[in-house]
Amino acid sequence: MRDSSSKHASPPPSPTFRKPWREIPWEDKDTELQYLRNYKPHRDIHHLRILLHGPVGAGKSSFINSVDNALRSRITGRPLAEANASASFTKKYETYKIKKGKPGDFYPFVLSDTMGLEMKEDRGVHPEDIKLALKGRVKDGYTFNPASKLSSDSLYYNAEPTLNDKVHVLVCVVPADTAAQLTESFVKKIKDIRETASHLRIPQLAIITKIDLACPEIQEDLKNVYKSKYLKETMEKFSQLVGIPTNYIFPVKNYSEEININDDVDSLILSVLRQIIDFGEEFISNMET
Asked: Is residue 87 very low, low, confident or very high in pLDDT (cuts 50, 70, 90)?
């Protein structure tokens, strides 16, 4: 005999909200792109410096590559990024420029990549090196040493940093599948770096990567990003863990398997890049020489 109660069973709750909990101008990719192409720092510096940090395999190098793709409207393949890395692909402190048009013409902002943070105390980038980079003390090409920070007598120590050497925006990059499950020691590392940045008044925000791999609804349609209940909960938990407000946390999908430009991928990348630039512009306008 059939169970009559099954006729009245409630449907499973939807994994998405009916309306997005944050708006994004999906149709205004060209407007965002033009804004970034027209941007010039309102101060006599060569560029805004954006420093990326976060756990191993979070997608820091892939984000730089994706920014390059979005701004140049083609798959560029630079810088290289290793897929599914169990150890940090980035070993050195490297700063990347994005080509703008003619040879020698670059966007007036740069992205500095760092070795990944790791859960264990003696693995990954030394947090003190991130702090030194914030102050402009680390020269490009420095090889990170998990066991010790950069020494002041090293050839890679910048004793007299200029405004161009100092970091103007700090960006924490974390993957969606682990953002809400960071260990206590890992959270302590992030908070320690954040405290130094706050003391220097450097603006901070976070990027949540690999959102399509963590949420089937987003994988099905990237425009579900701000309808996803899973992602909203993940961002809220991450915010509570590290203290970055949710309105300073932005989800992106990096280019990974695509061989052609995708407008929706670009829209997310360009929207967060504009936020980064606006944060940095406000900082350099107010910073002391």
From this structure: very low
